Amino acid sequence: MNDVSNLSFEARLELYFERAVQAWLLLKDEAGLVAALAAAKTFNPVDRQIIITVLDNLAIQGEEEEADAMILEFLKSIRDLKEIIMSKDWSIEDGVAERARLKMVNSEDEEALVKGDPDIFSRKYPDYFNSIAT
């Protein structure tokens, strides 16, 4: 696990978002989707563009794989999430509401979001996140 303590809060939130998406898509953690949406709605419009790039990069990685049913579903899920994130200019109230939803689904993920702690996913899934370069 890489030390993220030297990263800015914004960079830690971006990493939180990326890991939440990976937990949702690759590890079938449905709370990961809620965590990703809560993080996305927390970002300002400029930073939201950065996470759109994260999704685009994940899609490129998926496109490089052999196009089986799982990869096609992965790519569709990324496109759908990107569409949701880009669908409006999320307000602070939207972010607060999504964090409240996350707290109901998984309070530890919500607490980690507030603290900017992307390592929550490494703690939940050490075999996966500790084996990849982050």
Description:
It is a single chain. This protein is globular. It has helices at residues 9-27, 30-42, 45-63, 69-86, 92-105, 107-115, 120-124, 126-129. The protein has one domain (9-129). The longest helix has 19 residues, at 9-27. α2 packs antiparallel against α5 and α3 packs antiparallel against α4 (69-86). Helices cover 75% and strands 0% of the residues. With 134 residues, it is an all-alpha fold.
Overview features:
single chain, 134 residues, mainly alpha, 8 helices, 75% helix
Q: Helical percent range?
A: over 70%
**Shape category:** globular
- Return Rg in Å: 14 Å
Order of helices and strands: HHHHHHHH
Structural class computed from helices and strand pairing: mainly alpha
Distance between the termini: 8 Å
Q: Low-confidence parts lasting 5 or more residues at pLDDT below 50? A: none
Rounded average pLDDT: 89
Number of helices: 8
Number of domains: 1
Q: Estimate what percentage of residues fall within beta strands.
A: under 5%
Sheet with the most strands? Answer: none
How many beta-strand segments? 0
List the helices and strands and how they pair.
Elements: H1 9-27, H2 30-42, H3 45-63, H4 69-86, H5 92-105, H6 107-115, H7 120-124, H8 126-129
Helix pairs in contact: 1-2, 1-3, 2-5, 3-4, 5-6
